Amino acid sequence: xxxxxxxxxxxxxxxxxxxxEYLGMPxxxxxxxxxxxxxxxxxxxxxxxxxxxxxxxxLCSPVNKSLVExxxxxxxxxxxxxxxxxxxxxxxxYGRTDKKDQPRVPIxxxxxxxLLTVAGANRLLTVDLHAAQIQGFFNIPVDELTxxxxxxxxxKEKDFDDLVVVATDIGITKRARDLATxxxxxxxxxxxxxxxxxxxxxxxxxxxEVEGKVALTVDDEIDTAGSMTGVTAALMERRAKExxxxxTHPIFxxxxxxxxxxxxxxxxxxxxxxxxxxxxxLDKITVLPIAPLxxxxxxxxxxxxxxxxxxx
Length: 312
Prior knowledge:
It contains 8 helices and 14 strands. By secondary structure, it is α/β, with parallel strands linked by helices. The chain folds into 2 domains: 4-146 and 292-311, Rossmann fold; 148-288, Rossmann fold (3-Layer(aba) Sandwich), CATH 3.40.50.2020. The strands form 3 sheets. The protein has a 7-stranded mixed sheet with strand order 10-9-8-11-12-13-14, with helices on both faces. The longest helix is centred in the N-terminal third of the chain and has 17 residues, at 63-79.
């Protein structure tokens, strides 16, 4: 695999290192830093001419810095005559702004897609987009992996007899139904209404039977954990026996860790698509490594094998 090189910015170097170890190769050498005037500088130190390049950079906090780093790295690689450049973006920031749901608002997920393409990306590899239609915002190939198999295998080992999978809102229903099928469990749905543009949601109703059951909620990300605490409270009101929470992207911004600590969930299971902020060392947060999934996908893209076959 001497024609393959993996680079990373400063967003999640630990994940990039784990992927490189899975592939049995060192990370590509580059300089990515910020001048005192906040301008970002990138220099690729390895020869990349006509090579297959993968740049690993989730769009996580600080989101705008992570995005600009990625754009400048793509431009530097393009100008260094790289053969093919794949942007590996495990967490696609701005993915929640994927449609015009109010007058005079942007579709920022589409704007980010245009920026990545213009900067030099020939392909995108990502994990569990907030909305499936984001794939259609790109004019380049997009490979969207899912962490559902990783999460379902973890809960299969717990071997619950009375499990019910709970979709945290209507929009996540398909993903929750897929997880329920994998776990051979029934599905319930939380009906909720988001209030304005603030990170606040009002939980309205639970559709489905959860009383006396082990409830497993599923979402694509946990941001401030406001929705998660509302959902767990609603499930406790309906007398769920135990509550487990799982998601792909643990953003954990603002008071998220404190809310997780005080909520009724017994365990919160996430992946490390972004660096996991758990400064209090909560025992109830379990982090599953995503590097083997991304590493295998990179190997298959490089060697021309099927990505879909990974999930069959």
